Amino acid sequence: MRSYKSYILLITVMFIAAGSFAQQGEFRLTASYAAAIPVGSFKDNVVSKTSFRGVDVNLLYGVTSKLSVGLTTGYQDFYEKYPRQVYKLSDGSDISAVVSNSVQQIPFLATARYDFTTSGLIRPYVLGGVGGQLVLNRQFLGEYTNDNTNRFAFAARPEAGIYIPFGKDSHTGINLGAYYNYIPYNKGSIDNMNSIGIKLGIGFPMRD
Amino acid sequence: MKKSWPGIALALLIFTGCAKDPLNNLSSDEARLYITNHNDSASFSSYTSFRVADSVAVIHNNQLQEKARTDFDAQLIEAIAARMQQNGYTRVQAGTTPDIGITISRVYNDYTGVISYPDYWGGYGGYWDPFYWGYPGYGYYFPGIIGTYTVTDGAISIDMFDIKNAKANDKLDFLWNGLIRGSGTFTSANINKNVQALFDQSTYLKRN
Predict the structure, then answer these.
(1) Phi, psi of B136 (to 5 degrees)
(2) 208 residues of chain B, pLDDT tens digit each
(3) Could you tell me the pTM of the whole model?
(4) Which of B30, B146, B174, B204 should one mutate to test binding to chain A, selecting the residue with the greatest count of A CBs within 10 A?
(5) Of A10, B63, B175, B195, which residue is 20 to 30 A from A76 by alpha carbon distance?
(6) Residue A99 touches partner B, C-beta closer than 8 Å
(7) All domains in chain A, ordered by first residue
(8) What is the DSSP letter of A51?
(9) Fold for domain B26-200?
(10) So what's the ipTM on this one?
């Protein structure tokens, strides 16, 4: 629990820092469609299928022209239905079932983004986020709920991408990025809920 | 134009933010569970004959309502008898004491939620007076185990007992239980499919 407190503190400090610079910069929102590919034991033991149901949102305040800090949130829905199979239970019984696994991840990450350049047609950036992910993990045996675990797990995310403004003087543009969702998750045979994410969206300033 | 970006971003979130509903994505056949359990110490090849009780116990919220023989019940009894014969056992009629006694129960429960269900795979046969098998005054014996399943509807429980060694054991020992649960359990068209599934996953249940 001690570690969660430090994340909350970090996020708070970032917002206070952002607030004190509010006149010097501006808030920018990047809203993206996101797809995610499960890896590791998440892929092996829960869902192996790529999720095409997701969004990713960064709200970042420009501390300098290149460095911005803020919050990342979003949503990703993973789902897989496995064909009917007979499973041996620990009590000795055999159960034949169609198993469905359904996982939703909602990140809350303190985020820092560094843009390598503020000019040019293609502007590369790197982004780092640390915080937690609300992980909703459900398993169904046929139509019956076998597991329903909601957990707030530690999460971190390195990201790299490019920003392409719509015009030379435009403050709005396309944002393309790839990231690694690092989510340790210790439950039974599940060690993590890691995935590789790809996002495509629009970045724009929050002003009239 | 500039002001429309937040709207587009919001539309994106709503459009992709929908989780796939695991239950809506199941066919009726996929929704069903087949659970079997057996007495580890029983040698199924040591029995030669069986008899299926000619009616079905209807149990509602753990209360015996009635012994019934609807068209559905009769079909189910015949389907089980046919499969037992296919597996090498000889069917005997009322008046002859079989080696294996088979009772069928239709079980209905009103409650929902994950519950402790200590005798979900057995015990329902205990609603039959041991006198039915020619052993008045004998008790049934079911080993107790714990299972956690969400009970939202009915189930069919098929129990097999050791009549052959009842005298030696001083009880009607549990041999095998099959449980059919979920959507379509009580559909006549599914009877053969359901019985087949239970026997197919119980490869030990045969004369030779």
Answers:
(1) -60, 140
(2) 456 666 666 666 665 556 678 888 888 889 899 999 998 888 999 999 999 999 998 888 777 888 899 999 999 999 999 999 999 999 998 888 999 999 999 888 765 443 334 344 445 666 666 667 766 666 665 544 334 444 446 889 999 999 999 888 888 888 999 999 888 889 999 999 999 999 999 999 999 8
(3) 0.77
(4) B30
(5) A10
(6) no
(7) 2-206 (2.40.160.20)
(8) B
(9) Double Stranded RNA Binding Domain (3.30.160)
(10) 0.72
